[in-house]
């Protein structure tokens, strides 16, 4: 209800601002805090109203909101990061009593010399600061200044300032909680991304692992079936890697695996090509939508590039350098009653058989599944 001058009562306006604050977003929240200070300043007939927030366990403070009557100079910009070395008496008052009420700045005690000088610099005659408390913690204060005139602060002034202080403290608590929530959310997203990449990348070589391969193979098969395009799978296995490890040690073995992974990535840079570590000393290359001859060419150039890297392997009976064998399965999948899993299984088994044939027929070479079938028939014949 409005009074005789047509003004709404102070408590009613503050209650309206408080209601608006509860449902407002971050930007409007700041405007509503500013409105609350303006209402406080106007109703209490002060010259300046402001909020300071404490930091570093109430040893530092900054002016974060300020309202000034027309003609009164603002000081917010210069009142940042003030410490208890700058204003020791003031900090002590706030920490101990959580209020500071000064009717006459000239009558401040001797130990408040720094404070008196600061208030006089700002032409403040009377000042009042009421602490804002969150739980048990002093988080800041709401203050009012009288400029160029003295004033005896009344109980009504104190009640009004405290009311606005409580409302702002609750609002700041909500803002802090929201910011903290956003921070936690950001940290969770980063952790999730890391977990995701750790779950799909091989720890030693940094290339996709078997899990990633599985996903990609299913995706590529679906695409190949949909568009009636070819799909190839190459399984690569380092030759005599056990004897390499035995002669040069496991660490050198790890280095060799990293080197092979790097060669594979260099050789397979098209978007239709995908390289993964299958496990142990085995790697897999998926090649989508590429003709058989080109896939064979790519496979052969991988075999050559690995030997050309000249990683010494004195215990190999094929070459004095590390070599690898490749089994290739080329497929033009047709839509039939087979499930994707069955298609995947067929391709992997077939490439694996071809790899076995490559090993059996001398290593350091590529064998395709078609030739592997011929080789196995030959073997049966002998
Ligand atoms: N250094 C190292 N060695 C590995 C790793 N994973 C598997 N190996 C080794 O790879 C070797 C594979 O040996 P085998 O499966 O007997 O095959 P191979 O000696 O390569 O013989 P062929 O495949 O027939 O040419 C084993 O000695 C494994 O310990 C690894 O991450 N690091």
UniProtKB/TrEMBL annotation:
* CDD domains on file: GGDEF (cd01949)
Q: Which reaction does it catalyse?
A: 2 GTP = 3',3'-c-di-GMP + 2 diphosphate
GO MF terms here are: diguanylate cyclase activity
**Entry EC number(s):** 2.7.7.65
Domain GGDEF per the UniProt entry, residue ranges: 229-371
Biological process annotations from GO: cell adhesion involved in single-species biofilm formation; negative regulation of bacterial-type flagellum-dependent cell motility
Name the needed cofactors. Mg(2+)
Q: Give me the Gene Ontology terms describing cellular component.
A: plasma membrane
PANTHER family attached to this UniProt entry: DIGUANYLATE CYCLASE DGCM-RELATED, REGULATORY COMPONENTS OF SENSORY TRANSDUCTION SYSTEM
Q: What is this protein called?
A: diguanylate cyclase
């Amino acid at each position: 209800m409005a009074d005789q001058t047509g003004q709404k009562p102070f408590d009613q306006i503050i209650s309206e601002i408080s209601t608006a604050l509860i449902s407002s977003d971050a930007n409007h929240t700041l405007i509503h805090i500013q409105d609350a200070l303006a209402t406080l300043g106007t109703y209490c007939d002060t010259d300046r109203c402001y909020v300071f927030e404490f930091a570093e366990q109430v040893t530092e403070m900054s002016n974060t909101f300020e309202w000034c009557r027309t003609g009164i100079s603002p000081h917010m910009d210069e009142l940042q990061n003030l410490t208890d070395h700058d204003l020791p008496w003031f900090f002590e008052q706030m920490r101990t009593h959580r209020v500071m009420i000064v009717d006459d700045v000239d009558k401040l005690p001797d130990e408040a010399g720094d404070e008196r000088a600061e208030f006089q610099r700002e032409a403040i005659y009377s000042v009042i600061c009421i602490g804002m408390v969150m739980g048990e913690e002093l988080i800041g204060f709401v203050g009012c200044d009288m400029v160029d005139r003295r004033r005896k602060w009344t109980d009504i002034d104190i009640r009004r300032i405290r009311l606005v202080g409580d409302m702002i403290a609750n609002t700041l608590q909500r803002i802090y909680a929201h910011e903290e929530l956003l921070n936690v959310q950001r940290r969770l997203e980063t952790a999730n991304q890391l977990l995701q990449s750790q779950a799909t990348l091989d720890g030693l070589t940094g290339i996709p692992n078997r899990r990633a391969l599985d996903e990609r193979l299913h995706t590529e098969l679906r695409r190949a079936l949909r568009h009636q395009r070819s799909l190839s799978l190459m399984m690569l296995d380092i030759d005599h890697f056990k004897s390499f490890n035995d002669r040069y040690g496991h660490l050198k073995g790890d280095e060799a695996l990293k080197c092979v992974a790097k060669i594979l990535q260099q050789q397979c840079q098209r978007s239709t090509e995908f390289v993964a570590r299958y496990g142990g000393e085995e790697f897999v290359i998926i090649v989508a939508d590429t003709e058989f001859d080109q896939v064979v060419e790519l496979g052969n150039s991988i075999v050559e590039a690995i030997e050309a890297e000249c990683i010494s392997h004195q215990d190999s009976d094929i070459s004095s350098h590390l070599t690898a064998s490749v089994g290739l399965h080329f497929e033009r999948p047709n839509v039939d009653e087979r499930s994707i899993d069955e298609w995947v299984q067929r391709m992997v088994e077939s490439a694996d058989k071809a790899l076995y044939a490559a090993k059996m027929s001398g290593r350091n070479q590529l064998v395709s599944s078609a030739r592997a079938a011929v080789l196995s028939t030959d073997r049966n014949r002998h």
